[in-house]
Amino acid sequence: MWHGYRATARNRVVSVFVLIMFLDAVPEQVQANRPPRGYKGELYDDDIGEADKLVGRMSDKAAEVKAQSDAMPKEHGARTAASNPTNANPLSSTAGETSRLAELDAYWAKVSRAVKEGNFDLYASTCHKDGVLVTGVKQQCYPLSKALARWKQDFVDTKAGKTKASVVFRFRQRLGDETTAHESGIFLYTATDADGKDIRKDYIHFEALLLKRDGWKIMMEYQKSKATVEEWNTLH
Question: Do 133 and 141 form a contact (C-beta atoms < 8 A)?
Fold first, then answer.
């Protein structure tokens, strides 16, 4: 047991001599109590006591340095966020996101009103001049301006009372920031003749990419595929 104690004591002293490089000076009482050069006998109790004290001081110092080190990344992160506002979530404000979605709801309401009233000019004003229509059903892609030219007669007939039309949108996902939006879901387009007989009733999965340029404008309308009534009923 005593042999083990001496080995432990020697290990402590070795630790002291390694750690001593990190101190400004070694306590004078430890220097005074060192055994002579070449001494190979038992260590003095005073040496062991001073070693314990020194190790304790080093432990306290290490704990202090670690606490300072742990605090640095948080301070650095705070400075980085303040100096680089692009790292922040642009829609972190609930009020800002609510306002953005209200604007988009008003946009889709305008589209629906234009279809119902047969107001072609109002509908065209919701489209970007360089907009694109993609249709997964027909496997085609072309400028929205060509689609508008093809749809214009439907608006004329609705305005003249020859047909009645409506479009309603329900959303699955709504992403974006203050000037961009990606909306996806299902729209229901219906058209009837003057007697109320159904001409068309289509449930369509869609995605829309919009930019806010003097109001919201659709850049890409992607009519992906036909949807079912059951899928429609899952959305609100």
Answer: yes
Query: How does DSSP assign the chain, residue by residue?
Result: -HHHHHHHHHHHHHHHHHHGGGSS---HHHHHTPPPTT--SPPPHHHHHHHHHHHHHHHHHHHHHHHHHHHHHHHHHHHHHHH-GGGS-TT--HHHHHHHHHHHHHHHHHHHHHHHHT-HHHHHTTEEEEEEEEETTTTEEEEHHHHHHHHHHHHHHHHTTSEEEEEEEEEEEEEE-SSEEEEEEEEEEEEEETT--EEEEEEEEEEEEEEESSSEEEEEEEEEEE--HHHHHT--
CA distance 13 to 19: 10
pTM, two decimals, is 0.61
pLDDT at 30 over 50: no
Length of the chain in residues, anyone? 236
Q: Which of 1-15, 58-72, 130-144, 147-161 has the lowest mean pLDDT?
A: 1-15
Could you give the CA distance from residue 229 to residue 236 in angstroms, rounded to a whole number? 13
The fold of 94-233 is Nuclear Transport Factor 2; Chain: A, (3.10.450)
CA pair distance 75, 62, nearest whole angstrom: 20
**Angle of the 45-83 helix axis to the 2-19 helix axis, nearest 10:** 40
- At 96, the pLDDT band (50, 70, 90 cuts) reads confident
Hey, where are the domains in the chain?
A: 2-85, 94-233
Predicted local distance difference test score (pLDDT) of residue 216: 98
